[in-house]
Records
---
Amino acid sequence: MTANVNEELQLLRAEIAAAAARLIAEDGADYNTAKRKAARQILGDTQPPLNLLPDNAQIEAEVRLYQSLFHADTQPARLFRLRTLAVDIMEGLQKFHPYLSGSVLNGTAGPHDDIHLQLFADSAKEVEIFLLNRNLQIDISETPHFKGPRYGMVETVSFMWHKEGVHAALYEMDDLRGAVKTRSDGKLARADIAAVRALLVNSTHPPSP
């Protein structure tokens, strides 16, 4: 591959990442959907080679940039609110070893983002009964396992908390052993309640008055 071709691929990849970031920040699209839509916007119906599509880390970096350029006056307060609510929810779910993940953890959460948790219990039914006993209306769906596609899907319960959506993926207790690993870029893939509290304490963007 010549230097010019490689440079062109990098520019296209960056363009797709930027377009995907806009879809995530403005429309609330998930990363995979945003990536596909962005590729179609730029390439039309041409099927892009896999090495052309940006990875999630590159898109996340573009989301951060987009938020800083277009939502700097509102996004920090929004993130602070969601992290505060996440701590509140996690305190109530401590018996299920809650971890925070997703955009509320990595700091890119915007107006369309919900709170994503990972819970660990002997059975999913135990968590469902716990939530129902607290008069929460739950919906049940499935989420890919954080260990990868070969581990299948895990049951996920969704409910509203102070007018914000919460999605809790329900894992087996054995999965706790792999829960504290970092991502390939060295950042936390999930955080326990102590780590989320530390994010709030160390926040440089307190909520707007």
---
Amino acid sequence: MVNVIWMAMIVIGVGFAAVQGKMDVVTKAAFDGAAAAVTVCFGLISVLVFWMGMMKIAEDAGLMEKLSRLLAPFIGFLFPDVPRNHAAMGYILSNMSANLLGLGNAATPMGLKAMQELQKLNPDKHTATPAMCTLLALNTASITLIPTTLIAIRMNYHSAQPAEIVGTTLMATAIATCAAIAADRWFRKRLRRRPPVPKQPAGKSM
């Protein structure tokens, strides 16, 4: 559906430009946008590599293990239906740690691996489990201590104070995380109160 929306926007934009005789503006905007995207990507590489290296050092130094023990009760509260020693827990922790540092690109692979592990615990492969929904909500509205990616983008565009957004970002993401957790708890309670759906006898249809 998203691909259809983007394609429609592109076609409509190009169509209006053609009708108004401004195809040169569209061509210039396309090339300028591509050049800006490459420039921004190169600016982000150094920051992402730095923080991913710091996370690797922290992992080798045992800090990630200590952080895991510290967050274990909290993660157990958020994911009560996932065994404590399951592989998904490690990927969930890595995903949350990357999001805390504002490394959305680094958090995505860990989130996908966590989803794959959670899928192994899923009795209905065509329906997301509550744990999957919780992970998706936390990954989308994760609290961010250091908005690394945004700071890198602001630095790339020569912001006078690229780190001034740390306080407001922390407050906004904290509120978003609390709202996501509250919504997740509410839907979990609602799911538990819902009566089980009776199975249809074999050979019969609605």
---
Amino acid sequence: MGSETRPAARRRSRISPDRAAELYALVLDRLREVGYDALSVEDVAARARMSKATIYRQWGGKPELVIAALRSLGPPEIDAADTGNLRDDLKAYIGRYHQLAALDRGMNRAVAHAIHRDPRLMDAVRQAVVEPGLAALDTVLSRAVARGEVPAGCKALPYVKYMLLGTLHGGAVLDEDVDIAFLHGYIDHVIAPALGLRDPRDGPAARPDR
């Protein structure tokens, strides 16, 4: 038989990069508006004027579609700032996270809620957001050790990432707004003392027992 009688199931629609970008933007908008649980492929398809079959065939389902939409944003620009001292490096680092969070609070709330419901989404967020951020933090801490600011054997070093992640997300858990002054104070009064960093305003001081 001729090719015109070939079953439709064998044909795959082609979605252009521009059309996919439009769909991703729509998915992210709906994620902000209704959250992950209420977001549906049917709703997205109707708003995008695209068939549900096309979305399922191309992406597989809601989790995969949301993951693709989040990945379309690209990794966050979290640099391993080099100010010359660890205290200010950490303030620059946490300040960048705070800045990014402030740009899209609705998205961040929706994603933070969703990742605990879908392991695949959690893995995608970990790869796209968390791991690049932790890599930058490792660079900041390793540089401080190389400068001699913190001993390589400092017992507090392994806990820094947990302290930073905890305070960054603590505001959402407590339903409180955490501003940059609070974050800088957290570094000054919690993380810096734990690492034995001297506050230059205090003059010479003995390092705590490590």
---
Amino acid sequence: MEQKPARVRIIDAAHQLMLTIGLARATTKEIARAAGCSEAALYKHFPSKEELFVAVLKERLPKLNPLLRRLTADAGAGERTVEENLTDIAREAALFYAQSFPIAASLYAEPRLKSRHDAAMRELGTGPHVPIRGVAGYLRSEQAAGRVRPGADTYAAASLLLGACVHRAFAYDAAEEGRPPQTLDEFAASIARTVLHGIGTQA
């Protein structure tokens, strides 16, 4: 059986380790060992662990930001409603945060490491604030197209929608059922409908 290219093996190994032991404990040495390559080979593909982390987010997790860029470009066009688009965003965001939250949570237990990580994310032009800006940008595009109420606070709406998706990722493990009260599709539709009720042209 032909072996996968080194870059693919590295991302696969990083994804698995980050999911199981967290970003803080997944060292480049451990990732390289799991990928079957040297640490030097890893750094040929990824100059830093942060760049490897970003690659994992972009290539192994649900693709939220590409969806937001596409919806922003298509805002006001076609037959899809704002509610349908917000439902798609909520569904993809819930899936994204369900996978990314366990990876990044360990950083919050190590303030110095988190500070370095945040600085690296700023240099790479990314971070958890990017999807909020993306949703707000999409809603502003719909505002310009007349499908979101003039004067509606698009940043607040984006924060509410994505905040609910983040909350779904960690809030229900300790519940009696051990899971959220709604299916993913029910949740996404309900959150989209509720947010739109506050900002839609009929609100």
